[in-house]
Amino acid sequence: MALPIDATIREAIWNGTIPLSIRLSPTESRTYDQTDPYLVNHPRLSYLPFLLLRLRSFFSTDLIDPENTEFNDGWFSFEDVPLRWHYPLGLLHDLFTGHVAPEVLTRGERDEKGASTIRPWEIQVHFTDWPDEHLVRLDAESRVIHDAFINSVKEADFIRNGTAKGIMSLSKEDSTRLWTAVQEHNLSDFNSVNQKLLSTPGASLRHVPIRIYLPTSTSSSDSEPAAGTLRVVQSLVAPMTSPREIQTMGSALHRMLPSLFPSRGTAIFARPVLHGAVVPLNAPIEELMRCAAYTDGWIHLSIVMIG
User: Fold this and answer.
1) Which of 1, 81, 140, 161 is deepest in the core (most CB within 10 A)?
2) Contact 94/270 with Cβ under 8 angstroms?
3) Element (H, E) at 145
């Protein structure tokens, strides 16, 4: 029996992975830059800190000072920019690489045989010199990342319904099941709890949780923005623009970023990217929320400039 279209899309997104080539920071390695990389396909919807236990074990013999290094000392960087551990992997990849899925690549973005030219994303893991000015420290019990995730879920719930009643009324068993499903990447368990959040009794959808990420922030100064600087745009986006007209990705972007999206139907200066794919501007925003939101309930949208 075929799955409904939204369930099919949700399953495809859930099964999406990003190939990673993770190297130990040369300054922490006994062999400097000769350490073999850790290769893994990690779920787009997951988080990089979930890899730290395995990475600490994998690089244990390469570390200069393994006795004073714990797994929760680990943090990641790309081209010397610390990667925010509370961002899902898929969002980080979209922001820092600008790559889109092979099926939406232009001919010029493929090799001579027509295959995608996307290679594993090469990032570094560090276990010393924590960048306190950029990242909150992790703990061995994973309480910090758990609390960050749950707070994001609560905020999304409040934006959807005007109240956080949905997440606050979950049983302890369901709350635990939700977090465990995210950690273990278990779609069945995740759906069993997430559907309760999307169908809170007595609550109607007021707004769609959406955050838009631009690669650099605007500044009134003449100085260049720091590497890895992001501008995050967030606004209340209703599922309907009028009683008879649904809110689309194009109408939402036109309202939130009119200079980048002067047209509601045609991408002129930039493209919205979600889960590595360009989002059609005529896509209904509520349908995107129900089938393509990240596990915290948010549409995390990356903006990629055209040309």
Assistant:
1) 161
2) no
3) helix 143-161
